[in-house]
Amino acid sequence: xxxxxxxxxxxxxxxxxxxxxxxxxxxxxPWEAQAARFDAAARKxxxxxxxxRVLSLPAREIIxxxxxxxxxxxxxxxxxxxxxxxxxxxxxxxxIRYSPDVSLDExxxxxxWMTWKCAIVNIPFGGAKGGVICDPGKLSAGELERITRRYTxxxxxxxxxxxxxxxxxxxxxxxxxxxxxxxxxxxxxxxVTGVVTGKPLDLGGSLGRRExxxxxxxxxxxxxxxxxxxxxxxxxxxVQGFGNVGGYTAKYLAEKGYKVIGVxxxxxxxxxxxxxxxxxxxxxxxxxxxxxxxxxAEAADPATLLTxxxxxxxxxxxxxxxxxxxxxxxxxxxxxxxxxxxxxxAADEILSANNVFVVPDILANSxxxxxxxxxxxxxxxxxxxxxxxxFQRLDxxxxxxxxxxxxxxxxxxxxxxIAAYMLAIDRVAFTLRQRGIYA
Length: 439
Ligand code: NAD
What we know:
By secondary structure, this protein is α/β, with parallel strands linked by helices. It is built from 15 helices and 12 strands.
């Protein structure tokens, strides 16, 4: 069997210390984490070798090195990626993130997760993701705009409402999408709102898109509770990450009667045994830019919060926060993953052994792309829906997707994560077989 083009280098000849370091790096490599789950699900599905080979690799990977004139007049060069994992079910779809930690393997994994996510909620998109290696905290608005426009221009032939439709992700937002939309429109000579989603409302955005991911996560928490026969009242929740996803998840959970007792940010945490006043905390964040200094809570260590006693844990920050090192200490009964890739495969096994009920990322946070799909549809129709229509359709799709994943888990005797991959792979593989392999 030839080595897979994206396989890691074998550790057979490595000394033990190097092997241990490699093992840790390997555990937290998002692409390897994605591949491990893909392999397990494909095996369980008896997926034929050819289709398996197709889906185990991204269809297209684009690397751009983009020159940008900085505010001080000097030229900097930034590296950006766009990976289109699959267009089998429709145009590629997926966010763009700006971070110093962006890597090709991370973008590959995020692109594949988009393919699986779109298939789980059964919307007509493939999967893609993009990223630029940069530190937005150190860049002015003008520099960010020039990076965004040049990145878009470098990718212009690969983007489009029928080709590949970006959206915001970590450290990008509605403004970033507006710049991409404008740059694309200038190149095509007409306003093309459907080239991105997550846009400002006045530029063809959808009502409810901003709230959608967190709202969807809260619907998944409801479904998990219903499945386990638990009630919202008295359900004690800890949320990690208080950005778009974590903030809206906490808001909706608090409105529904859950008790959010802890919020963990990168360097700070808050705890209140009687439940945090989430609307007040959201106001505090809007006024101060963070959670520090919120009076009606005790300061808490963010890492300790993750393993503190609670019923429901929602990681909504970033990858690899639950690993083989801390999974055994997780005390939550339910783990509902707002972030992409928060749990490593090694941690999965520990959580499974400890009977933690996991709502996996590719299901739990799919409310974002579902509402992006609504936005894309509205842009193409030129007719915009009321917020209650968006939310009603979103909630229904989320609930039905949860039930579909649970049915796979029951029928195939696998955990929820592998069930979600199986459902997604089954749907994408079906389309691939129907289309056939173009020659
Ligand atoms: P965001 O930038 O709005 O918020 C992220 C928050 O997490 C910030 O408050 C940041 O301070 C905090 N954070 C970062 N690293 C942390 C760490 N190690 N520990 C604790 N807190 C940390 O980003 P977002 O849009 O909310 O995205 C969060 C996660 O959800 C990402 O994994 C993203 O890919 C995923 N996601 C987002 C959407 C969406 O619609 N925004 C959709 C699906 C998935």
